[in-house]
Amino acid sequence: MKTQEKTPPRTTSDDRAAMKALVYRGPGKPSWEERPRPRLRASTDAIVRVTTTTICGSDLHILKGDVPEVVPGRILGHEGVGIVVEKGEGVGGFKVGEKVLISCITSCALCPPCRKGMYSHCEKGGWILGCVIDGTQAEYVRIPYADTSLYKIPAGFDEAALTMLSDILPTGYEAGVLNGGVAPGSTVAIVGAGPVGLAALLTAQFYSPDKIIMIDPDQNRVQAARSLGATHGLSTGGDSVAPAVRELTDGRGVDVAIEAVGASATFLLCQDIVAPGGTIANIGVHGKSVELHLEKLWSRNIRITTRLVDTATTPQLLKAVESKRLKPELLVTHRFGFDEMLKAYETFGDAAREKALKVVVSTRPGPGAA
Amino acid sequence: MKTQEKTPPRTTSDDRAAMKALVYRGPGKPSWEERPRPRLRASTDAIVRVTTTTICGSDLHILKGDVPEVVPGRILGHEGVGIVVEKGEGVGGFKVGEKVLISCITSCALCPPCRKGMYSHCEKGGWILGCVIDGTQAEYVRIPYADTSLYKIPAGFDEAALTMLSDILPTGYEAGVLNGGVAPGSTVAIVGAGPVGLAALLTAQFYSPDKIIMIDPDQNRVQAARSLGATHGLSTGGDSVAPAVRELTDGRGVDVAIEAVGASATFLLCQDIVAPGGTIANIGVHGKSVELHLEKLWSRNIRITTRLVDTATTPQLLKAVESKRLKPELLVTHRFGFDEMLKAYETFGDAAREKALKVVVSTRPGPGAA
Amino acid sequence: MKTQEKTPPRTTSDDRAAMKALVYRGPGKPSWEERPRPRLRASTDAIVRVTTTTICGSDLHILKGDVPEVVPGRILGHEGVGIVVEKGEGVGGFKVGEKVLISCITSCALCPPCRKGMYSHCEKGGWILGCVIDGTQAEYVRIPYADTSLYKIPAGFDEAALTMLSDILPTGYEAGVLNGGVAPGSTVAIVGAGPVGLAALLTAQFYSPDKIIMIDPDQNRVQAARSLGATHGLSTGGDSVAPAVRELTDGRGVDVAIEAVGASATFLLCQDIVAPGGTIANIGVHGKSVELHLEKLWSRNIRITTRLVDTATTPQLLKAVESKRLKPELLVTHRFGFDEMLKAYETFGDAAREKALKVVVSTRPGPGAA
Amino acid sequence: MKTQEKTPPRTTSDDRAAMKALVYRGPGKPSWEERPRPRLRASTDAIVRVTTTTICGSDLHILKGDVPEVVPGRILGHEGVGIVVEKGEGVGGFKVGEKVLISCITSCALCPPCRKGMYSHCEKGGWILGCVIDGTQAEYVRIPYADTSLYKIPAGFDEAALTMLSDILPTGYEAGVLNGGVAPGSTVAIVGAGPVGLAALLTAQFYSPDKIIMIDPDQNRVQAARSLGATHGLSTGGDSVAPAVRELTDGRGVDVAIEAVGASATFLLCQDIVAPGGTIANIGVHGKSVELHLEKLWSRNIRITTRLVDTATTPQLLKAVESKRLKPELLVTHRFGFDEMLKAYETFGDAAREKALKVVVSTRPGPGAA
């Protein structure tokens, strides 16, 4: 459906037109290599010099070879903050030199899904960065439809924190909190305390739910979740979780069960703990089908939702950062320089042992920079 | 959860206190036999003399032994129209002698689910008639919480038609149309052209969707659906259905896929034909789990809903009958007398061959009576 | 706020670059005169040769001098159908030679209000055609942001009918029906049976309300409304209307009262007839303030809405025309040629006597043409 | 509409059947006098011994003679906490001896408005306490439809604080916050920092709006509002307020303007400061009509709402008190004993000078009691 961007030749004679980038060279082969800088291809494009980027769970999936759309030679990455260095004449909303947030979703603004606010299914965009076109884990990146795929950022804020708004915060908020219908007084369970689950946790608090129960086998992450606002944490595994949730909810189960893992067992758990009239909001990226117990659920008046993030809430999240109601920096555990990109991948790839949530990679990694 | 009503002794010495009823005597054993008339047990009860009742697909399930809550000795039936013959002092909304519609859902009006309009999960009621307490396939029935479980009916309307409002019309409307979010301009597919699927078809038209595609292997039923307002019908089986639906929807799939069968294959079909941003509204009663292709659906922004009918829309549906916007009589294909109850079961049990949709059973089956 | 387009000199030496247009020359002075054809000014503009246009009530207001934004020299008109004859390089959605519907609302698609679907408040567009830039009552018109301000039209449909979709049908639908929350079973009153009131009447029927009571002092219009689907009509004036509405609604009043006049008396009537929990949806263009009886309404749980049409529903309305669920041609009473533009104004200006609803003006007015 | 309860003779011979009550003896004449204790009149009634009550702004209105439904002899008061001392056999939800919150709204649960959740317009209840039947400013009160007009209260919480949930907190929340559609990121202005405006302020924070601008001429109250969570306060009067609000909102105005005064000037101010697409949520009790500037607002896509509190959110608010997300005790400034009832009225009647928000009256006013 989406057109694959052709990969340019590996080297370039003009040094000023070269840059370093993290290139996918096939399963298990990330490569930090020199590549020609991107150029404008359409009047609605902008070229952004990336100053901070980060690594997403889906980048690890790509490196395992799980995402067939991504072909060898592709520059990875769909998150980042940078500076506009060049723009097509059709770009009216930004100036060269302006600092911007890059959305993981490219939106043309004109097609029917975009007109409905479902940018994730933009007929010309959607999730294309670091997927079917070159991405943000590079010194420069080309952003199509820049006017509606970049966002102005408030001055004086930590770039690393703002990078959390490229993907994981709108993902947790839109696919978890909004689709789940979290409301004042709700009881919420979030299954999975990884970065996206924690993003759901932070943004669920916009709605003052009565209880937020964080569920994860990793006790460290549950602990982190408690400090980020979870009212309860469950790190016990297996069959004891559902009874524990019911005990916390007067036997009813939760109004909203947010799946933030992408696995069969966790989706089954959500089915066990959702109350009649409740919602299972799926955020997880699933690699295979799951069992749905309709023989129990058909009569329980529940709702199951899925969503690829639209980033329609990015302006609201930026305002929340500005007013300090949202503190994305709490999700950043490790900071690296651009020349440490492969080390950053290693750290994030071994997140549990490294106690890593989000690792950011920045052009100026010196003290106080990020 | 719900308390089982004890079955009274099979016979009674007082003839005036006896009645005939369809009693479940174990799997495969319906029995048309004499039983004592029901009596008031609580001040909020009413006794209704049933003048018309009907048979539901779930009655057939019970007779197969598929519904463990139903114990031998239970009078079946949860649909009907009748006349109030006795009432407790706490019943203020109806008079003795008044003709009423019996809702398949008993609602106490006071518990938290009832206060939220989710009568199906009433803490003291819900689906209890013909399930854990004696039902409507009898000359008399006791209705608990009569004030909020009975509805006044408009004078001069066909009782058989009104009986369709006890269960199948609110079921098709609430679980299919409302949960599905059918709206002006929507494309809708209804999988299964049985009584409930056709009830969804009739009530979907309240919202003027752009297309309603009826899908059923039985060509007769598809034909019936076309005459009831379906814009398209598909009776081809198997793998050719999904491509045909896509062709009818410019390759997008449907905005709303309504599952009105309760089987694995039909639920899978709904997953195949739902458009990004769309809804699968399950009405079907499922006996086992189904496969959910989250590996495809996680990113498609869809919604899956389930619902046991609340009958919260019964007043609206009654008004629609009165104004002739809704013609439930179109669903009634066979009419029997009370003494033909077992024959009615046989006919409904062999619906495809008999070309039966809904069969009604009435006390006065003479010409022009129903 | 919106920038006024400068008016070019009245004549032009190049005949091929000239056209005829209806120009506002000050209060009471419409002029059918020669003007230079419009040219592209931005890459997102298109030039459309107008084949059918129509006159709106607001054009009459302008001619009375009631709309100060409109300066002498302005070409009027914000409705029409035509053919794209030229387009900027930034216009990707249409081809030269394609037939299009012109929306009365210009939408840039990129600004925050556009991203929320509130195109009426587009920071660069909104209602500008025939107001602050030259409009459609001319042989040619320049359409800014063509990709999101023009719509493809279905082949084989009456142009005059489609012209009703430029303004009045989305206005009646969005400001009246959608803002009013018309729903299956609702009782609706529409105050004012002019073109926009009738547009609300036609589109209210998408939702199968229980009753639609049309109120207008002109008995002819009420009669027309009855034939277009109103279930009741009231042409009695003054104090007898509110009691009559209450009688039709069991003393409750209506769920939705749609004001389609723009006057004090009709807005007061809406306050009198709205039921507790109901909505007053204002469509009318008001020239002065009205009295709001909050001393009665503060406790009645009502909602009052206003809206400048967004034309966000235009694609849906086009589909409804295509499927013949909506028949806009029913609103067209008079058809004129372009050279009869002033006569068309006269007829529309004396609508009651002429029994005129909408008058259309077309380049090819011969028999069978429109 | 509502039936007036007859007032019993002033004295009684049986001492054990007597009680003290605040009786309305005509305009300007509150009287603290002896009255017979109330008795059960219907099986759904309960008798509650009032342990804490409070005075509402509407009580002051009644005493001015502004509320014609209230006849001399009526015991005032519609707020309170107490203990069930007697109940009809139809009351199943409460036990004698149980501590309860009295809702200011009586709801039968069975009528159509109650079934829709609009208890304020209950056909048999609504606001009747201290209005058309005797109220809570007495040692005992009869509560009709006790099952759905009383609420269980969490143990160990300050009774005075809980009394805020009888009326003002659900009023501010339902009529202001929910009707206003306050959402994460909203800009909100609350006009009027009296008890109900502050109740709106406390509950608006459930939704994490971006800004809450509190507007009141009384600098003390604005100061109090700041300490309760308002992000901005404006105590400047007259024409400077609207410009100040626009300056705080980038010239747009607010998304939600909450009117919490009930006067013409404040309602006009709301019209001045609401942004296009925004909402004016009226809470104020208005004594006369106001001017509505439809000549400006007709095209601004706004919504105006009114609401008599339904107290449908009381269970949610009780949970919020329990989890300490809501601290109603912050609204209580003065505490009196029952025998100081008239003094409490005096204090509340001179609220500005006394710096009074809510005054509570309790049976056990000793230290630590309330």
Beta strand count of chain A: 16
How far is the N terminus from the C terminus of chain A? 38 Å
Secondary-structure element series of chain A: EEEHEEHEEHHEHEHEHEHEEHEHEHHE
Helix content of chain A: 10-25%
The major β-sheet of chain A equals:
7 strands, mixed
Identify the most extensive interface between protein chains: A-B, 36 and 36 residues
Going by helix content, strand content and strand pairing, the class of chain A is: alpha/beta
Characterize the quaternary organization of these chains.
homotetramer
Shape of chain A: globular
Radius of gyration of chain A: 20 Å
Mean pLDDT of chain A: 94
Content of β-strand of chain A: 15-25%
Provide the low-confidence segments of chain A as ranges: 365-370
Number of helices of chain A: 12
Task: Please tell me about this protein's structure.
- Four copies of one chain form a homotetramer.
- Chain A has 370 residues and is an alpha/beta fold.
- Helices cover 25% and strands 24% of the residues of chain A.
- Chain A has helices at residues 57-63, 112-115, 159-163, 168-180, 195-204, 219-227, 241-248, 264-273, 294-297, 314-322, 341-349, 351-354; strands at 18-24, 30-36, 46-54, 80-87, 99-102, 140-143, 150-152, 187-191, 211-215, 232-234, 254-259, 274-282, 290-292, 303-305, 332-337, 358-362.
- In chain A, the strands form three sheets. In chain A, strands 3, 4, 5, 6, 7, 15 and 16 form a seven-stranded mixed beta sheet that branches. A six-stranded parallel beta sheet of chain A has the order 10-9-8-11-12-14, sandwiched between helices. The first copy, chain A, has a two-stranded antiparallel ribbon with strand order 1-2.
- The longest helix of chain A has 13 residues, at 168-180.
- The first copy, chain A, is globular, with a radius of gyration of 20 Å.
- Mean pLDDT of chain A is 94; it is low at 365-370.
- The interface between A and B is large, with 36 and 36 residues.
- Strand 14 (303-305) of chain C pairs antiparallel with strand 14 of chain D.
